[in-house]
Amino acid sequence: MPYKVLVIPGDGIGPEVVEAALHVINAAAAKYGVDLEIKIAEAGDVALRKYGVAMPPETLKLADSADVIFKGPIGESAYDVTSLIRMRYVLYANIRPVKNLPGVPVVKEIDCVFVRENVEDVYVGAEYKIGDVAIALKVITGVGTRRVARVARRYAEMRKRKVTIVHKANVLRVVDGFFRDVALEELRGLEVDQMYVDAAAMELVRNPLRFDVVLTTNQYGDILTDLAAQVAGGIGLAPSGNIGDTKAMFEPVHGAAFDIAGKGIANPIATILSAAMMFEWIGRGDVAQAIRRAVEISLEKNIKTPDIGGRNTTIEVGKFIASAI
Ligand code: ATP
Ligand code: MG
């Protein structure tokens, strides 16, 4: 049975980086004999302009029947596409590894994995405006915290067995306090410490190597992972996986970056490394390793886009990495 992969190119630089990544996915699947059934569908601002909905019913149907979704960034309609996919399939853990790569100017040495809760917090969409007051509800549940903490535990057990819980329980005593307490309980037996989110931001720049696995809530994770990606060498290199119990979605951390769209200069590596995470998730760690190695080879050979000091185009980088597989 082939793995059904739904590809959503997305907006801005999305179609460019996804096209480059598809070269790599196809090369890797052919070389390693992975049976993929790839379908491509529209969603995002492009779909909104064409059909009046950001997530057309056809795309949603394909997403429902897919095993895994591979997605480029979405522009203005991110909430209607990215958040919808995360919520609909309960992709409750957002995995964002952060690690230096060869041939990339380094801000600081870093090697950690963020496990960000992905379906709760202030992103549940419970926002209200009442006269002169605007309210957003921050929702944290025990079941939601336990399941994402278990993912953090799995990663810690594969790594240095250390988890840092990031929260702001000194101010948000009830909600963040609950997240911390439930997480602490779920992580018993591992080396666990905790840090306020503001201190974590500082430490990520000052001494990033102190982090191994970072477990945090949705919004703090959103912000800290952009910061951490830049510490590692740039947002154009940062991959991510959105994991649930039966389905998953893989996408770059970065957004649609309209300022550089259509110029052929977007870095496809974040998207290509997201493809590596996808192969890992379907149980093909060997293919993931081959893709990561091919990425390193391209960087060592100086085949790179301008954001990291190179002179190659998006598609040149994609094709080179595909050929290096
Ligand atoms: P969002 O609002 O979804 O975060 P965004 O348009 O702000 O989307 P970001 O990902 O936050 O996009 O990117 C910020 C800037 O970083 C972009 O405007 C772009 O200049 C740069 N950038 C982002 N991704 C890439 C990439 N893959 N390659 C090169 N530069 C990038
Ligand atoms: Mg942004």
From TrEMBL:
Q: Does the keyword Metal-binding apply?
A: yes
Its EC number is 1.1.1.85
Isopropylmalate dehydrogenase-like domain segment(s): 4-321
- Provide this UniProt record's keywords sorted from A to Z: Manganese, Metal-binding, NAD, Oxidoreductase
Catalytic EC class: oxidoreductase
Family matches, as Pfam families: Iso_dh (PF00180)
Q: Could you tell me the superkingdom of the organism this chain comes from?
A: Archaea
GO MF, one annotated term: 3-isopropylmalate dehydrogenase activity
**Which SMART domains does this UniProt record tie to the protein?**
Iso_dh
Q: Which cofactor is recorded for it?
A: Mg(2+); Mn(2+)
Q: Does the keyword Isomerase apply?
A: no
- Official protein name in the record: 3-isopropylmalate dehydrogenase
